[in-house]
Amino acid sequence: MNDERRRPTALEAFLPFVFMALLVGVGYGVYRLRIEVLLIAAAAVAGLVAVRLGYTWAELQSGIIEGIAKALPAVLILVCVGALISTWIAAGTIPLLLRLGLHTISPRFFLVTACVLCSFVSLFTGTSWGTVGTMGIALIGVAAGLGVPLGAAAGAIVAGAYFGDKLSPFSDTTNLAPVAAQSNLFDHIRHMLWTTAPAWTLGLLVYLVVGLRAEPAASPERVAAILDTLGDAFVMSPWVLLPLPIVFYFAVRKRPTVPGILLASALAGVIAIVFQGESINDVAEAAVSGYVADTGDPAVDGLLSRGGMGPMMEVTLIVFAAFSFAGIANRAGMLDVALGHLMRLTRTTGQLVAATVGSTIFTALITGSSYLTILLPGELFAPAYRKRNLAAKNLSRTLEDSGTVVVPLIPWSAAGVFMAATLDVATLSYLPWAVMNYTGFLFAILYGFSGIGIAARVREDETLPGS
Which residues, in sequence order, are bridge partners of residue 390? Predict the structure, then answer.
């Protein structure tokens, strides 16, 4: 260990974060440069500051490895979902869901329908990723067939998936937030309705108004042609839907995610061979490289030619680069110092809530991790809420309002990468349409300054029900 290491000053702590914000904002936002290169450059700057603080390369490398290790479970799921998408297409599972959706969903009410469906699925399964990886894939295909803008469709899907995830007692982040804030799980869920319900309702109103005012982009004739193409290219048997209940069973029963995805993919591969006439080699190639459709309709081929573990591996570099930066920032103490300075702006309840929101979003931008976004600000702000005699469920609610649902809106976060890769829609394209995800924390700040929906602490041990 190096005994000459010192704590970073405020300037040294904020410099790498400001540099990253400029790189990403200008380089990616304006000039559309590869975000992987920009994140690696930001990590290099953070490394130079860390060296100035007395850290050795071995210590920084250890921090990078720890950061990447935290991302590996998400990367593993991402790669497995690539195989799931391609095998489900080969089996006819997704084509049948597309056909059913095109038959039943009105283009004018698509955004509302997609959001509500994903909300219910994620509420009962507790997984936003699982919802997007199953229901979301089918809905984004229906949106393409109906001519609904894909950015809007993906935003409604993501918003619905995170609404249910946020309020589900089966969700990992919903359980983690009260642990970090030392509140009770079900008190935490009920308290979130103050911010989540109006944010979700506002999103539905936006989707309803936009849908009613929009002109249908796909004519009935075009939709009929897509239906005929799907019917000619795939055997539409109810048996092809068998992989669906496997994924939902693993989600509801809280079984490990990866084995469930792999089992559903394997079953889909068997169905592709038995019902669709695919060879074992074709299924294996699709699982690795992605399914390549040949229906005779270029638009349908473009819709169905996707998936594969190989293409998903390409986007993992973004996650590795982002978590490398986060690993250095954490190891050198930069994040702790930066959060500490943000916490000083807490003279009133409104300022405390606003500082919590700012710190949580800041942590989300820097780490790209849903878990760190909850744990770090939660540990930092818990004493401040107790000192002001505020219930811990105020903190746990704010952590979810500004952490859990904001992370998928960050292009380099594990969740953002997953949503964009799975739906094949860029994060910045669906961001404006995921209304619930960025309005919940606005309600939290409003309540903080107005006193509405702010609960006082009523007992010492707030992990008990009724706190």
Answer: 456
